[in-house]
Write a structure and sequence with these properties.
This protein is about 40% helix and about 15% strand. The protein is built from nine helices and eight strands.
């Protein structure tokens, strides 16, 4: 199994990160991909990758909720870093209008610039979208999806048909699929497993039976188990397909 989205470098793990990694490996997690948030998170993310090379893998991008007055300076720094070392994706990028629409224009500009980076570098994108699906799709079509691939992180059921039409994009399935009141399992019945990758979004969105507690990569098997129930397939087959999808999307064999 692969956790395609985990913020293991956050302070939430300062006291027990070695144990968190040990539990992940014991649970069968082969790799953990870490999306960046903003300038302040880069050093922590790099340190985690250096401590667990070839296991914790960094991405580079500016999270939409961090797009503020200084976003141009932040983007310049990140663009330079993308030229200096290996990252496995441009992420976490996208648009988030859930709490605040003040920076709608700036979020759009930042998102589209980072999409262009991904196209130029041949990297996948990890897209965060909350209450902004139409805006995100407008940007993708404006920039053009030829030569672009990626994942809609924390997929909760919005726009599956539009995403599948893109053909080169996956949907990241995390703890939400295990929630009792979630409509996601019903939505997934119309989505082939070939479009899915597994993720945790640790320390957030913890799956049942640990909902309400800190999330970690070792909990991916609970997501796989729920997907196996949804698709009426063996867990090993869900694991095989979603792992293959992640390896292909993030070019993990190179």
């Amino acid at each position: 199994m692969i956790d395609t989205h985990s913020h293991l470098y956050l302070e939430d793990y300062d006291e027990d990160l070695p144990l968190v990694i040990k539990r992940a490996k014991k649970a069968g997690i082969e790799r953990i991909l870490m999306p960046n948030i903003d300038i302040s998170s880069i050093e922590r993310m790099h340190r985690t990758e250096e401590k667990y090379p070839d296991y914790c893998l960094s991405m580079m991008g500016l999270h939409p909720t961090s797009v503020k007055e200084d976003y141009v300076q932040q983007l310049k720094k990140m663009e330079q870093l993308l030229k200096e070392r290996r990252y496995y994706a441009v992420g976490e990028i996208g648009m988030d209008l859930y709490w605040d629409k003040t920076f709608l224009k700036e979020q759009t500009v930042a998102f589209e610039e980072q999409l262009m980076w991904a196209k130029d570098l041949g990297l996948p994108v990890v897209i965060h979208v909350r209450k902004a699906f139409e805006h995100v799709m407008d940007s993708l079509h404006r920039i053009g999806t030829d030569g672009l691939k990626g994942v809609f992180h924390a997929f909760s059921g919005s726009g599956p048909v539009e995403i599948m039409k893109l053909k080169t994009f996956k949907m990241g399935i995390g703890g939400v699929v295990t929630f009792k009141n979630s409509t996601l399992p019903e939505t997934l019945k119309n989505i082939p497993v070939d479009f899915l990758v597994t993720e945790t979004d640790s320390p957030f969105l913890t799956p049942v039976p640990y909902r309400g507690k800190r999330n970690e990569s070792a909990y991916v098997p609970y997501i796989v188990k729920t997907l196996a129930d949804v698709y009426e397939m063996p867990e090993k087959e869900i694991d095989r397909i979603t792992t293959r999808n992640a390896i292909e999307l993030f070019n993990l064999n190179s």
